[in-house]
Amino acid sequence: MNAAEITLSPTMTPPETPRVVSADELRIGSGRTRRFVGLEHGARISYFFVDNEPGEGPDLHWHPYAETWIVLEGIARITVGDTELIARAGDTATAPAGVWHGFKNAGEGRLQLIGIHAAETIVQTWAD
C-alpha cells in the first residue's frame, strides 16, 4: 500500500472510550476458558483463551474464516483436515477457512492457548 491509497486520517480521539475487558467478563460459565467477541468491543477479530487439562479440547468443527492458535503453555495435538500437528509453547498453527479442525491437550500438564478467529463474531459448525 502506498501513501496515495491511505484514506484514514489518524486522530487522538477514539470513537469510543478505550477500556480493559477483564478476564472475568469473558469467562465462559464457571470454567477457565474465556471468549472475546470482537463485535462487542469494537474489534475485527475474536478469540478464545483456552486453559485445558490433559485430554481436553474441542472436537472437530469448522469456521467460514481462518483460525490461528498460539500455544502459551503445554502441548497441543491439533488436527487440521487429515493432518495432525504437535504444537508446544511458543508455536503457532493455522486452520484455513472451511476446513475441519480441533485440538486436544496432548501433554501431562495444563494447555493454555489463544485461538484467534479472523472475524468480529464467532461462527462454528460442529461435526457432532
Automatic annotation (TrEMBL):
Domain Cupin type-2 per the UniProt entry, residue ranges: 50-114
Metal-binding among keywords: yes
The keyword Metal-binding is annotated on this UniProt entry: yes
SUPFAM superfamilies on file: RmlC-like cupins (SSF51182)
Pfam families referenced in this protein's UniProt entry, alphabetically: Cupin_2
Superkingdom to which the source organism belongs: Bacteria
UniProt entry keywords in alphabetical sequence: Metal-binding
Annotated InterPro entries: Cupin_2, GPI/OXD, RmlC-like_jellyroll, RmlC_Cupin_sf
Name listed for the protein in its UniProt record: Cupin domain-containing protein
